[in-house]
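Quick one: co-fold with pyridoxal-5'-phosphate.
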Amino acid sequence: MRTRMLKYGCQNIDAEDIDAVVEALQSEMLTQGPSTIEFEDKFANYVHSTYAVSVNSATSALHLAYLAIGLSPGDRLWTSPNTFVATSNAAIMCGATVDFVDVDPNDGNICVEALESKLKLAKRLDTLPKIVVPVHFTGLPCDMKRIAQLSDEYGFRVIEDASHATGARYADNDDEELVGNCKYSDATIFSFHPVKIFTTGEGGMVTTNSDEIARKVTLLRSHGVTRDAAEMSTDKHGGWQYDQIALGYNYRMTDIQAALGISQLSKLDSFLQKRKSIAESYTLHLANNVHVKVPNTKDCMHSAWHLFVVQVAPEKRKNIYDQLVESKIGVNVHYKPVHTNSYYRNLGFKSGDYPISENLYDTMITLPIHTKMEKEDVKYVCRTLNDAVNAK
Ligand SMILES: *Cc1c(COP(=O)(O)O)cnc(C)c1O
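Sure, here it is.
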């Protein structure tokens, strides 16, 4: 029996990371200095995007990406209910109306067929969305090629929520196509919260190939204030001059966080390798249990494996969950469908609106997966899970 809880997600900070942060603390600029620029350049270079703009969280990244596209009151944004509330909350912060598209029961990602039929209907009713946000659930990319085709056909914009998918690729056979290259979207957002693929404490990034989106996100993350004379409507009198040209926020990433981000990014490939090996190990040790449905690892090798989600019989889920927690395994459930939260119920959503997401929620358990797990930990989780599933 373990004495300490095995967490479902956990950061991996080593001496090099700590040195990088200490160096940043001793430098001249604590925020928006050289480390921020270097982190952005290196991140853009890693995912093959033209621009990367850092912010203080993925929630801020979503908010600014939506604003940069012009999401306003009267506009609609669609995403899937199987996500963290931030994806849709950020649209409500823009004054927009949120609606959802149900997921594919096989992987929890937005169901492209459901998207297409909802678009067809919306076209007839003149209620098409301005933005659709595919969420790469667990780090497995959505079917972006088809979503991009639908975007051409129906004229909506696409922002990818890649909070789970730093370092993921769009297909197994394509080493070049990294999530965030924005080949299929207007912008992609990432999260560097400690449970995610790598961390800056708190932090986020917007990647894009659009000059306009990059410029707007940069402007809005810092109060809407510019020092660029070409952007000012007032006369430039001297070097002290700035002008607020839009209503912005303080969503800046600090140089302390960026220094940690640079150091963590250099380990991303090894983090991904470790996650993949844990996923393979889980698959192997759970393969013989017909009562546990594991993700299809064979077809998901390009996933970033942020989460390892298994499915069990809904009537047994609570007991299994409790038994795992009792055995010091920090399991979790991702996600309570967004529309079933009280806030969204008050907006008019109700149970039954998105049955596939709701059914998934009743069966899913997130097993621990992070880079500090040992092989023995994986075996312990599998043994405990197999016992719990087989218990009467
Ligand atoms: C974590 C997460 C977010 C929010 O990220 P923060 O950096 O904590 O703001 C948004 N969307 C999804 C899908 C997430 O998992």
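If it helps, The longest helix spans residues 268-286.
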